Amino acid sequence: MTRIWMGLALGLGVSACGGTAPFGDDDDDDTSTGSDSVYFTDQNELMTLNNITYDPDSDTLTLNNIPFDDPDNVYERIQSEKFSNSFDAYESVPTSGTNEVEYFAVFRRSDSGQSQVAAAGTNSYVNFGYGGAGAQRLGNQPNLPSSGIYSYNGEYAAVRTTRDGVNNGVTFVTGDANLRVDFDDFDVGGAAGGSISNRQVYNTNGQSVGALDGYISLTDTTIDFENSSIATSTATEFDGTGEATGAGGNWQGVFAGPGGSEIAGIVFVEGSEVREVGGFIATQ
Predict the structure, then answer these.
(1) Which pTM was predicted?
(2) pLDDT number for residue 165
(3) Which of 123, 124, 249, 275 is most buried when burial is the number of CB atoms within 10 A of its CB?
């Protein structure tokens, strides 16, 4: 596969820092994150994804604002995928002889239909390239409890791009999401945090190829009761011995369902050799 140099100085060596997207929308739709959705456009200037649309009739995923993926931003289901959870794998299908490049994505709509998450990445650049993740609340904004401590457990999936000089490429990752939420303390902000564990690795055909030692820590953060969302906080990858791998980034989410009974969240970690960008659906 021919990989593309980013061409812009900002395209090389960017980690989880602030910035704005280098491009505007790549189609005619004017999208906005709004209070019902969270994306990583404010955390990393190459995480440009800013809207998700899913058509269950055709089983196609539309991811807006990722450069060079497809003229219609459409991703097709990878039919050979055999994930161990309820996420599914998708890919853009570049037309030969064009400037389109191949992207891979994971997607899940919650069992209740109240939320959905997606994440995307590519192997088509010398560095990590463009991508992103988004979590969307599809139903009404819930009224959150004013007190109580709750556990949320669910499923995670991600696109992982490796640039270690030996095993360069893209894989899919699945895992378990475990969070705890205290709706009372901190005094007016609540608290939420957790981890991503039991990460299993799949090739780009969606076939199992092994496992990843360690976990991703989702550092405690506050709750935005006005928008029923979870404020962005630090995400850090640890190996099987409990040592930080050097990959770090952010996580955030939105509450959905009656009383905020489910969380749709996104996770992003990046180091010198790897970027993993994913999402999770977790329920009480």
Answers:
(1) 0.88
(2) 82
(3) 275
